[in-house]
Amino acid sequence: MAPGQLRGVVALDGPSGTGKSTVARRLAGKLGAGYLDTGAMYRAITVAVLRAGVDPSDDDAVAAIAERTDLHIGDSPAAAQVRIGDDDVTVEIRGPEVTLNVSAVSAVPRVRELMVARQRSIITDVVRRLGGIVVEGRDIGTVVAPDAPLKVYLTASADARAGRRTRQDAASGRNATIAETRKDVERRDRLDSTRTTSPLRPAHDAVELDTTALDINGVLNRLVGLLDERGLRGQACEAGGR
């Protein structure tokens, strides 16, 4: 695949339901850039933990599972497949049991150490090949890629986020009320923002973008505008370091 228009790394952080995943994939696709969903990596480790019958709150046991899990994740916005060994877990990682336990698993320091090292390696490789990558998660601008030339922290009201998550779940065949989803969203926020290692928070130099009143195209247009303001978008840019 030839280098695209994006120069460097776009770090997209924020809690669940802000439109992060959809807009990250669309932005990467629009610019011919790579794409990395770091949350999918933690979800895959959670699948491995649950399959092994390990208590997600047992840090040592969870770390041992993470160390031996053969995790593979796609870096194309059109094919972001997630595998454990040869087993495609792209759908399984979005299940309710994984969602319930992923915060506990991702809070384990050794898990984060392993995943961050892997994420940085992927970023370096993709930027070398394609010139740029859009990376989404909860600690991209603060930990994974602190030197990213554009860091954006997406926010939205709790009601808007719960509504979006409920619609996403319904589209995937998972039924829940908005009240139930809001409760889960708030639980995830609390766990992710209070964990000791890499808590959810905006980087000091991140642009904060409230998506409550914006649709996906509106968010995408804002991001493209920010890239243009910073001179990070061009025609068939040369691949280089981030």
UniProtKB/TrEMBL annotation:
Coiled coil: none
Pfam families from the UniProt entry: Cytidylate_kin
EC numbers, comma separated: 2.7.4.25
Lineage: superkingdom: Bacteria
InterPro entries from the UniProt entry: Cytidylate_kin (IPR003136), Cytidylate_kinase_dom (IPR011994), P-loop_NTPase (IPR027417)
GO MF annotations, alphabetized: ATP binding; CMP kinase activity; dCMP kinase activity
Swiss-Prot/TrEMBL catalytic activity: dCMP + ATP = dCDP + ADP; CMP + ATP = CDP + ADP
Primary localisation category: cytoplasm
GO cellular component: cytosol
Domain Cytidylate kinase residue range list: 10-226
GO biological process: nucleobase-containing small molecule interconversion; pyrimidine nucleotide metabolic process
Amino acids binding ATP: 14-22
Keywords (A to Z) from UniProt: ATP-binding, Cytoplasm, Kinase, Nucleotide-binding, Transferase
Compartments reported by the entry: Cytoplasm
Record keyword NADP present: no
Sequence similarity: Belongs to the cytidylate kinase family. Type 1 subfamily.
Cited HAMAP family: Cytidyl_kinase_type1 (MF_00238)
Protein name as catalogued: Cytidylate kinase
